Structures are given as C-alpha cells and as structure tokens.
Amino acid sequence: MKDYKIVVIGAVKSTERILNGLLRNNINVVGVLGLDRSVSRKVSGYVDLGALCQVENVPYKSFININDDENIKWVRNLKPDYMFAVGFSQLLKHDILAIPQFGTIGFHPTKLPKGRGRAPLAWLTYNAEDGAASFFLMTDGADSGDIFVQEPFTVDKDDHAFHVEEKILSAIDKGLDKWLPLFKDGRTKPVPQCDEQASYTGIRREIDGLIDWEEPGDMTYARIRAASKPHPGAYTFANGRKLLIWEAAMIDRCNFWGAPGRVLEDVADGYLVQAGDKVLKLLQMEYFDNPKETVSLKVGQLLGYRPQQEIHKMYQEINALKKKIEELKK
After folding, report:
1. I need a surface site. Which of 43, 54, 260, 303 has the fewest CB within 10 A?
2. The Formyl transferase C-terminal domain covers which part of the protein (predicted)?
3. Is residue 139 within 8 Å of 113, Cβ to Cβ?
4. Helix (H, G, I), strand (E, B) or coil at 302
C-alpha cells in the first residue's frame, strides 16, 4: 500500500468535498492551501477550508496569490507526492506545479474531453447536459490531462445550478470511494483523453444573467437555471430596483397570454410572467438591495426596461433641463 503525501489547494464546496473524501479514505493529507476570505467575494460557492482542517488536525495556510514565494516554499517543505488543485481561478505556475513528485490532480465536472474550460456548472445547467466527476493529471492545457476516474451524473431539463451542484458533489463522493482504494494500492493508471473529441466552454460573468424578456422563453428559463445559486443570479428590474430570480418553472399549459415581461397572474407559490413565447412561474426572488424584503409584484406590471421608452424619457428630461437653463440665463 502506498502512503502518498497529499497537498490540497482550493476554495469551494467541491474542494471541501474532495478533502473530506481523501480523509474518509485514510489518504495522508499533509497540508491544505485555502483562498483567503478577504479575496473571496466573487468566488461562487466559496468555502473557508480552515475550519475543517482545524477539526481534522491538518496543517492549513491561507493564500491570496497561490504563486507567491511563501506559498511555494510552504508546499515544497511538505514534500508532497501529489497535489489536488480544485475550485479556484488562479493559474498555477510551473514553480508550484513541479513540486509534487508524481504530479497535480485536477477536477472537472464534465465528461472530458467534452466541456473543457470555464464555468462548467453554469454551462451544464444551461444546456441540461449530463456531466461526470472527472479527476485527471493537470498539464499545460485546459483540463486536457490523462483521466484517473469519471463518475457520471444526469442533468434534467428543469435542474437549476443548485440542483446540479448537489449532483456533482454526490458524484465526487462516489468517484473517490471507487478510485482512492486503488490509488492507495498503486493500481490505478490514468487514461489519455482524445483531443479530437474535445469541446470548450467560455467564461460567464454576472451580466450574463440579465434577462431579456423578448428572447425565446426556453432561453430565459435556461438563463435563470444556469445563473442560480451558487452563482450571482439571473436578474431583471422591478420598480427601478434590481430583482434577482433564483428559481422558476416552465408552465407547459397555460390559459394566460400577454406581452413579454408582463406579470400575468399572482398565484399561490409565485408569479406567472410572459417570457417570449413561453410563460414562466417565478418561484424564488429577492431584491438585490434588500434580500430580506418580501417581493411584491402587481398583475400587469412590466418587468425590465424597454430601451426606446427609457431613451425617450431621458430625451424629455434633458429637454426640460435645457429649458430651465435657458430661463435662468434670462
């Protein structure tokens, strides 16, 4: 049996789940580097790994820039055989990647080589595409290294990002419990990926959650599902305030029809809203500036802005200001 020394680097729920899986399988975790809370604001699903390390008596160090000399020295002193680097956006430079004797293991929740790249949780949800908890040897390419294990999971057409995240975490548990006993015995050999079958996904930003009620309803529904927690949320505007929409449902059969963005009906568990050619039920919402305030919409209310109307209002206001200025000059 191999007593590999492992260092874990990361910052999110999947990192925490992997660390728990390593400890559950009696893997020798000699140190953990976790992203410092002070720079975590824009990290979706951030987890402070320090608390778990304290409970499990695992050496822990927080970082702001993973490639700083002090972090490299800290890892080098631990003399790891492998590193697990999971769930943070900083690129590991060669100086730190070269430290572990046998390499650095990465994680990606898609059926590699498909879906390499950025924002995999959002894109799997948006496309309602099945994924896999994939562990692989990191290389210079994006998610392109040889694969140790893939544990598949399904994504349904109505799943939101928070549903898919739970499926990913469950697949991590299953994949690690299958693979790590073999890993400890030195009986696992990674399998090369087929680059010819590779596909890639791009980065997503908060603005990608902005709802255009004129677009096809299926796209709006996908946008809401993909931007849901742990992401910043899909959003529109109501009464001049930013309104986050965390959960919605597609209404397949509806006897209401209206203009895009109009609130059609106030129902027991939400609001029916016309979204392009479809009707959506908005189930969970909150105001961006006051999440604790109860969201109250009115039937017939128009959500979002209409650019031409808003431009015309601005034009009128500018003209009114010009007239006042001219009057003051007299």
Report:
1. 54
2. 208-286
3. no
4. strand
The mean pLDDT value of the chain amounts to 94
* CB contact at 8 A, 315 and 307: no
Rounded CA-CA distance 53/6 in Å is 14
Please determine whether the domains at 5-201 and 206-310 fall in the same fold group of CATH.
no
Cα-based angle 211, 215, 221 (whole degrees, multiple of 5): 60
CA atoms within 13 A on the CB side of 132: 15
Contact (Cβ atoms closer than 8 angstroms) between residue 18 and residue 148? no
pTM for this model (two decimals)? 0.91
User: Is residue 132 within 8 Å of residue 179, measured between CB atoms?
Assistant: no
Q: Tell me, what DSSP letter sits at residue 229?
A: T
Superfamily of domain 206-310: Formyl transferase, C-terminal domain (3.10.25.10)
In this predicted structure, what is the pLDDT of residue 230?
94
CA distance 263 to 239: 13
d(CA 221, CA 43): 24
Pairing, β 278-287 against β 270-275: antiparallel
Domain limits of the chain? 5-201, 206-310
Q: Is the pLDDT of residue 154 over 80?
A: yes
3-state SS, residue 145:
coil
Look up the CATH architecture of domain 5-201.
Answer: 3-Layer(aba) Sandwich (3.40)
Q: Are 193 and 144 in contact (CB under 8 A)?
A: yes
Count of beta carbons in the 10 Å neighbourhood of residue 66: 19
Determine the average pLDDT of the residues in 181-208: 93
Q: What are 10-52's pLDDT values in tens digits? A: 999 999 999 999 999 999 999 999 999 998 887 888 999 999 9
First-residue to last-residue Cα distance in the chain: 93
